[in-house]
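Morning, I've got a small favour to ask if you have a moment. Here's the protein in full, and shout if anything looks odd to you:
***
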Amino acid sequence: MGASRAWTSRGCRWLGAAGSLGVASGGWAVGTLPARDPWGLWVPHGAAVTAAGYALAYGGLTALVVAWWLYGRTGASVRGTLTTLAWWTAPLVVAPPLYSADVYSYIAQGAMVLEGHDVYSVGPSVLDPGGPGGDAAASVGGHWTDTPAPYGPLFLILARAVTWTTGGTIVPAVLGMRLLALGALVLIVWALRNLAREHGRSESAALWLGALNPLLLIHVVGGVHNDGLMTGLMLAGVLLALRGRWITGSALLGLAVMVKSPAAVALLFAGVVVGRASAGPAVRRVAKGLLPGLVAGTVAAGVSLVPGTGFGWLGTQSVAGRIHTALSLSSDLGLGLGELLRLLAGTDPDPVKSSVQNLGLLVALVLIGRLAWRAATGRTEPLRALGPALLALVVLSPMVQPWYLLWATAVIAATANGGRALGAVTVLSAALVYETQPSGSTPPYGFVLAALACAAGVVLLRRERSEGGRARVPGQRPPAEAAVEADAPTAR
């Protein structure tokens, strides 16, 4: 018997809860603490406390990852998986921001909208240090202090509401933004369960990979990233389109784009769903497939115009690409090639890097188009093609952060019954949690830890496959273990 068989879902639940508590507790000492906290709660501590905080946070993170991996092989029920999700989420709710300072940008940008600044032309540095959002602006990561907002108007409206409600005070403002993240998590859970039913996949398996995922927990709940809200709206939109309610679904997809623009990829596949469901000649089906884009575009225009934020977001979608992230293959390749040409020919490396980044995006668009064509011609299901399409976008983007993987993971979790994409996002979810420190920085050893976790995940998956597929996912409990398991019967 494998090690996973010695663990019940209840044992994994306790282990993961202890791990989550360790991450949250360590975060009070080594999380992404604000530059100023007038309440004095989230403040730096001495060297001994900091060292203990790192040990607690990394030990807790490893326990959480191990518990998640084992839990996926216990055959837990839907009810049990939802209970486990609540247990693992709870400790992170009141923790300081973890693994990223982005939430401070959100609060500061909300204050900018509240004060009438153009968030699409200037950065948080324009805020009065003593005014609402001033403490958040002082806590923004160095790259983003003078960077315009790359987010859509809907998210900025929500950030403005949080800033107005809390006065921009750090602790309540962060907790207000975390409430939005928790709402997004609820939406993701609902959409995952329903999409899994539509695709004949175990609901528990979809929840295990798409919601219980430690990458989501630490970066959407702990790190308060708005990718959770974009993903929740995106999943809900494609679900409704799949069920024939394409007008409402397209409106939700338009709102998802008004959080972050990558959701536009899902709009393409929603159009394929609508077109394939239409009767008549090809021209009629193509015309019908364009309607979701029209609905989403109308929603986007309304969200941009009514609150007065305008269409400046269209011009800031490339600002993130100016910041180099080591996870971006095209940026790494472009930087290396540019530096090589600088040494050999004395040329400016920046245009070379930019060209390679653009080439990467072009390749991603070609792959997305090919997947959409396969779906449109009936060779694959549209939403089964959407997951790999989003994965291609993530891999080939000029800026890649660990939590970007969640765009594709959520869709693959609900639609894929196997294949390389499913295995890849499973292993990467367990590995990429180590790329950043709880403080938000990216140390070299983070890549070493991620590589080791990735290698371990690959070995474990291969071992499971070599054992004749005996590894199980939630919702596939063998009768012998079901008899001693305390959870409710397996639900689909």
Residues 431 and 454 are 5 Å apart (CA to CA). The two ends are 27 Å apart (CA to CA).
